[in-house]
């Protein structure tokens, strides 16, 4: 690891958080006072940071500062998120670690009285010869120090919200990574529930921001609540509706008001006291222990300074945002690039919403951008409404869709950018190498995976989740299900990667950046390299089938198969949406009414023998395409000739075997055994051993539903 020079210890040789002082002990500075007889009504509050790694617009922190006598900001490194148990690539872990370092600096600079509880026994611990398991808790004796002058003159504005008048007020200086946190964050390592319960046992209460979560995170939060009881409070401070029978009643006006409302700003005063318990655990130590070694390139830096710099640079070019959104090479610098900062909460959606509204002229770019900030909330609301998005199809009619078609070779071709569709391959390689793609390319890759390769959606969603630096469970999985068509909306689109080349990379700049083996092929052949005349292939020395794969499936035939299979399930899907339980899960912005409208229109009576044969016309499908782009771009793809040659990878597995081996999407089998960047980047699959038997799953239904639209644009369009 390049940036941990000088850090000799790892987690097997430093103390973990233990021997926590009671709030009274922590505030008893007079050495003559016996802590045992000191007043016991000191109100101490731990602010447990998980994802909201900031100090501005942070409701839990603001409440703690307002109500407690002493606060203890805490972050816990949970080993579950590392090694083979974890689902994040090393680059995302590094981003998180940078953010924790940066948060520590914010707290070091907060205008508070700072108390340090010294872990004085750490050196004994270091002297131990036997390696100690990370979970082992060491008992240490503490001594307390108060630095009277620590009301932080150095950067007293560092905890203010983003200044909406565009002055330099909120950034912190980045500095070398700390070897120990001594006056900022308290950092633990281990099961967060254990550590929280130690604090509770010592008389602390705990506040944390509620975060939509699923799988392990959901179980952890439930466990923490049951172990800590009333001492732990999850606070909703992100604008999402919780604990309501129908979260979507008046959701739009609620979220609009919330975004405009005053931020949750901690009202620091000279009286605020902040406790830090140095534990020797820092991101550098964790990285060393878990051998974190990111290989991705072009990854943003996870600091608050970088976040605000990025925001300000984007605001200067917001006018050109609409024209930069679709083409992947333009989007790389033309969209905000803020998604990882939102995901880990270095900036809140509301901070950015207000900053942009206050610092840019009213224009289309501003409207489009701020509506996307609402999409962030919209998709996260879906996960808050139903935690099952990561594991099950939201509409039961599509449960296990494509499971019987699982073909590991096709999955590998997609993951490693070897499908023979240049736009898809460039995107998948870019994802693996940089951890980012623009919306359109993400959606296209989902469509190819689920509609054309016809593979189980959760494998692809987990792959995205692993590689995306910005992977937000609340958006990634809900978007996957939405793009795959598992909600049962009448609007469904299948992206045509050839059209994407013509529309967004006609000169091949993007494709050749990520698929360099096509560099010498004339650009007019990029939509369909396999159709390049043999003479041209020889002349430019790019032989399709040798240097670059032929399409692994027949796109047009697969598209027809998809529509046919999909429409057979649609009436049932519509009927499911009539059930309140399913409508709640789907969490349409229009609430139950929207779900019922679909049900009434598309749920054909089950007793109708013809029901399964009904196919809607193209115009019917697009009539209530609530996700369509404001440009009205709902254009059928250009009518293209059928493929004459195509290949299907040879899977030596029988169907039965491959179904049994489908990764479950959770736990150890989550999509992939949590591949590390190092393997992922170097591990391009070899598809040279393909057979040429054709696609046996072609049902030959003759329909034309090759819709090509952009994403939804207005909040009214949410579904
Ligand atoms: C299959 C799929 C998976 C996705 N997974 C994620 C994810 O894990 N995390 C994530 O932040 N975005 C995700 N998106 C949405 C979108 O692609 C990214 O938000 C965007 O590309 C991030 O770049 P940006 O910050 O420059 O976006 P900008 O265009 O600058 O948008 C600003 C912000 O608005 C929000 N936003 C933009 N588009 C969307 C959208 N379609 N849905 C919800 N919020 C949106 C994001 O918070 C984004 O940072 C996904 C989209 C698809 C199709």
UniProtKB/TrEMBL annotation:
Lineage at the top is: Archaea, Methanobacteriati, Methanobacteriota, Stenosarchaea group, Halobacteria
Query: Which cofactors are reported in the record for this sequence?
Result: FAD
Which Enzyme Commission numbers does its entry carry? 4.1.99.3
Is Lyase given among the entry's keywords? yes
Annotated residues for binding of FAD: 321, 335-339, 369, 470-472
What does the cofactor section's free text say about binding? Binds 1 FAD per subunit.
Q: Where is this region: Disordered?
A: 1-37, 145-183, 663-719
Per the record, a Pfam family?
Answer: DNA_photolyase
Q: What ranges does the record list as Polar residues composition bias? A: 170-183, 685-704
Q: Which species is this UniProt entry from? A: Haloquadratum walsbyi (strain DSM 16790 / HBSQ001)
What are the residue boundaries of the Photolyase/cryptochrome alpha/beta domain, all occurrences included?
A: 43-177
GO BP term (any one): response to stress
Please give the PROSITE patterns that the UniProt record associates with this protein.
DNA_PHOTOLYASES_1_1, PHR_CRY_ALPHA_BETA
- Top enzyme class, one word, equals lyase
> What Gene Ontology terms describe what this protein does at the molecular function level?
deoxyribodipyrimidine photo-lyase activity; DNA binding; FAD binding
Q: Which UniProt key words apply to this protein? A: Chromophore, FAD, Flavoprotein, Lyase
Q: Which InterPro entries match?
A: Crypto/Photolyase_FAD-like_sf, Crypto/Photolyase_N_sf, Cryptochr/Photolyase_FAD-bd, Cryptochrome/DNA_photolyase_1, DNA_photolyase_1_CS_C, DNA_photolyase_N, Rossmann-like_a/b/a_fold
> At the top level of its lineage, which domain of life is listed?
Archaea
Gene3D superfamilies per the UniProt record, alphabetical: 1.25.40.80, DNA Cyclobutane Dipyrimidine Photolyase, subunit A, domain 3, HUPs
Instruction: Locate the compositionally biased regions of type Low complexity.
Output: 21-37, 147-169
Protein name (record): Deoxyribodipyrimidine photolyase
